[in-house]
Amino acid sequence: MAEGFRRLGHARGARPERQVVIFGGAGFIGCNVADAYLEEGRRVLVYDNLSRPGVEKNLSWLKERHGARLDVEVADLRDAASVRGAVRHAGEVFHLGAQVAVTTSLDAPTHDFEVNARGTLNVLEALRAMDTPAPLLFTSTNKVYGSLPGLRFVAGARRYEPLDPDIRAQGISERRTLDFESPYGCSKGTADQYVLDWARSYGLRATVFRMSCVYGPRQFGTEDQGWVAHFLLRALKGQPLTLYGDGLQVRDLLFVDDLVRAFQLALAKLDTVSGQAFNIGGGPTRTVSLLELLELLEELVGHRPDVRHEDWRSGDQRYYVSDTRKFQAATGWVPRVGVREGLTRLLGWLEELLRGRPTVPREPVPLETHAGGSWSPSP
Fold first, then answer.
1. CA–CA separation, 48 vs 332, rounded Å?
2. I need a surface site. Which of 25, 45, 60, 281 has the fewest CB within 10 A?
């Protein structure tokens, strides 16, 4: 438990109102999802073990904005009984909780499996035990496609481009063969497939989002996860930056507001999207290489960080851009926030963060088990 917080007892049985339950709800994406539903007047249960540095600040922010409509369960996905209790009054469930770093998975693969694969099975079984199972939206990753072996590229001065003209125009589609690589890819890929099969085998209403690079406010970026915010933080603080590989690798960026809207559309179109996986990202119109992002940072911040290069990391993709046409056809969704606008908005939030002189984490911390309980800031 983070320093300066305490657990309080709770009586969820006295609150039969259907909640939006968000596993990993104190994290960057989770707190943005929570905020959107709380703004609509919904009651939200955030389930998180608060192990990632900085996320207790997200809970304080939500509590200040929304008060009693926010419930918090401080617990771990590996605690099956606690997971079952959390979904008891669920109307919708977002499973965003995970061990998120490839590097951590390589150091502690058993831990990675227990959190990502076993934790997901706990969520699925908790939903299956409900009289009327709540719908589930699960966030997977583009890492289920591995390093995209066999995809051929040409290296330009600032970025890689695929030789296949269809991929260059549209990105990587869901037809791409799954090819798990790294323990993280294996654990998230396992969870991805379990969610799809529980929809098929048991009739759960569940959808999988295979996400690309999501960024935006409330993101405490590190070298291993949340790299866009990490780049901006390094630039703002005048600190050096490490690039793994040559910097030509390309990603599509999706601003978090556009992702939240995609989640809501998926739930609204559940009869259409249930039992399916969708690649979700900014798509071909919102791509950037690492070197191009450094150029943008120089424009926005006024300088770029000093850069040193290290070897490629396991499973790294030289080019990944989401082909989002399948989800667009099913729901009508298109991203609205462009890269420059999104970076400017994230930059403004990070500048406020640094002016407040909070502790900004630099390295991811492995998840630890916490006992269940409610949360509130200490007086």
1. 32
2. 60
CA 190 to chain centre: 17
Give the residue carrying structure tokens 């600190």: 239
Q: How confident is the model at residue 375 (pLDDT cuts 50, 70, 90)?
A: very low
pLDDT tens digit sequence for 327-354: 999 999 999 999 999 999 999 999 998 9
Q: Is 142 within 8 Å of 322 (Cβ atoms)?
A: yes
How far lies 115's CA from each of 23, 30, 237, in Å?
12, 17, 33
47, 184, 194, 320: which is the annotated catalytic residue? 184
Predicted TM-score (pTM) of the model is 0.89
Among candidate residues 72, 87, 4, the one with its CA nearest the CA of residue 373: 72
Which phi and psi angles does 190 have, rounded to 5°? -60, -50
Catalytic site includes residue 184: yes
* Residue type at position 269: K
Tell me which DSSP letter residue 361 carries: P
Alpha-carbon distance 293 to 286, whole Å? 12
| Alpha carbon distance 117, 104 (integer Å) | 15
Structure tokens at 119: 């934790």
Nearest to 171 by CA among 319, 315, 329, 277: 319
At residue 274, φ and ψ (nearest 5 deg) are: -60, 140
Measured on CA atoms in the order 213, 45, 117, 103, is the torsion positive or negative? positive
Nearest-5° Cα angle at 82, 76 to 86:
105
Q: Phi and psi at residue 334, in whole multiples of 5°?
A: -140, 145
Answer for the pair 252, 212: CB distance below 8 angstroms, yes or no. Answer: yes
Provide the residue type at 351 as one letter: E
* Helices 28-39, 256-268: crossing angle, 10 deg rounding: 60
Q: Which residues contact 187 (CB under 8 A, 6 or more apart)?
A: 99, 105, 112, 113, 115, 116, 117
Instruction: Express the helix, strand and coil content of the chain in percent, nearest 5 each.
Output: 40, 20, 40
Q: What is the mean pLDDT of residues 99-111?
A: 90
